[in-house]
Amino acid sequence: MASRKWRCIHSTNVDRPSINHYNFVDVSESTQMKKLLMFCLLTSIFFNSSPSAKNSADDLPEPYKKWLEEEVVYIITPLEKEVFQTLKINRERDAFIEAFWKQRDPSPGSLENEFKTEHYRRINYANRYFGRNAPKPGWQTDRGRIYIILGEPRDRVTYAGKQNVYPSEVWWYQLDSKTGLPPGFNLVFFQEKGSGDFRLYSPLKDGPQKLLAAYDGDPMDYLAAYEELRESEPSLAQVSLSLVPNEERINIGRPSMVSDMLIQKVEGTPQRLQKDRYAQKFLEYKDIVEVEYSANYMDSDSLIHITKDKGGMHFVHYMVELPRLSVGSYESNYYFSLKLNGTVSNQKGKIIYQYEKPISYQFSADQFKEFDLKPFNLHDMFPLIPGDYKFSVLIRNETSKEFTSLEANLTIPADDATIRMSSLLLGYGASFGELNEKKLKPFHLGSYLISSQPNQTFLNTENLVVAFQVHGLSPEVADKTALKFTIYKNNEEFRTLTKNIREYPDTLNFLQEFPLHDFPPALYTVQVSLMENNREFINQKKEFAITALSSISRPWVHSRILPEIESPHYSYILGVQFANSGFYEKGRTYLEKAVEKQPGSADYSLVLARIYRALREYEKAKSILLPFAAQPEPTYEFLFLLGQTHLNLGEFDRAIIILDKAISLYGLNTNVLNMIGESYFRISNPEEALKAWEKSLEINSDQPQIKDKVDALKK
After folding, report:
1. Measured between alpha carbons, how far is 90 from 101 in angstroms, rounded to an integer?
2. Using one digit for the tens of pLDDT, what is the confidence trace for 126-149?
3. Considering the domain boundaries, does residue 425 fall inside one?
4. pTM
């Protein structure tokens, strides 16, 4: 064989998976194998990573320490603070700060973040006016803290220069009811003993006696102090026992705890009102999503339901609901483009299945008006083999550079004869006969398509749909079994219904509707019990709510019809999952079915060849790979795998030819060079083996085994 000079060949230094580390990933829905392999790596990091150690504030660079301990100290939530202190590099901290303010922006579409502008105005005001005569900056004073949290009071009354009363201020607030605070309340600040900074007054801890300059009575006699204060300053006395106007007090002689509870609630208002779930998502996905996405987490809700078809195949149905979807516009048309990445990992963190799906829409201005005020629901489903798993879906809106995610633990039961009832799926509607049993669509049970939302809230003008499956029922058991539906309101039985199973047309998929017109607004629980001889032996429960609202914004849904149940697509997916789980024999059975039905599929054939190699059935692997490797432009994966297979069979000359072709088409990488070196070494051509291995070390010097081989040849 002719000598080769490796420096003359393409120098694309891309390392492919090594000979012993192929993943049986699903690439059927994406042609971008490289991106999927990277996503596989990053998601495995996500599933296996443990929380990083926190940095103390003192360890932070000065600008970030100032931001955390001064600028946002009163409004940052504990979770946000914990996540921020976990970040290691300034790029991540900058991205988090951007996300922090974006989550608080009341009008994300505008150029200005009004919340951020107002917050820094309040800090500047506090420093300017409340730090003048204080031994600390204004933002650290009690008045500065409250001003930063609540803003300008509606009214402010000052008591200064009074002989009998220490300098005091009463601030009156009337805020939006969304704050969860009383519709109107006072806050009092006073100079204790007439000097120093103004301190926030507590009716219970301080009492009116602390406001009096010359009170010499019993320090625990609130009533006497109140009467003395009322003689000189009636309006101040009025708020000295309660900060909440018209509070009903049983004993006016001692303040109630209501005012102190109000103060605590005021100081916790920014944290209470802020949804901080984005912070945890930022930490989890900062190494996975692109930088421009990381600051733009979209809050979402989700629902998962697992079904089993008559052939025994389990399916995971899931929906992700966005309160509102950001779209782009061009002239009079609107559009968006989503990219969905799903990953299923076993309990040891090994990825057994992953997929990527693009979702794009274009619609007119009239359609946009219809959809704009509705939530967006993304529905999807996939088959899954028995086991316990972690499931993750990452959804990126490429139009707005936002992302959201779903994470859940899944359990798919092993197939046996045990009678089981699935979890309950509650819906606000069900359409009949849209699909036949051979076709599949998310949240389609038997002949019914269930309309549902994650929050499980209903109007009393709607019907409650209760859908579920019962598995393992023999005809004999079904004949003597009944279903009992019990609806509880405030833990008390509200409605019951019992029906024999034979009253339903299907003994696998069950659906029961309940009109809600006489259900008052409340929180309810529906329980479905499987009964035999009036004895319950299985039940499932689910909570739902009836709202007093006159309408609910039901979503517009993206959902697609999947291939028919006989499609080789499902055999392929299950085969991939079994192979990734280490069950190669089961994987082979499913993949052989898929290839038999669709022999021209490169995806199916490639995975089956990998399974054959794992089972050391190299001739079978070669027979599948050869036709694809002989094509004018074979993919790298087929050439690489065929080269491995020739090497396994001891066909070293053929391995060199195939691997040379891989290099000529796709450039150099260490794995191919190492296999070429091994092939030359096996045919007693040490000179060419040395060239290949030395070139491999030029690309990646951290290869101890290859170094040992090179050193041995040189000796």
Report:
1. 17
2. 999 998 877 899 999 999 999 999
3. no
4. 0.79
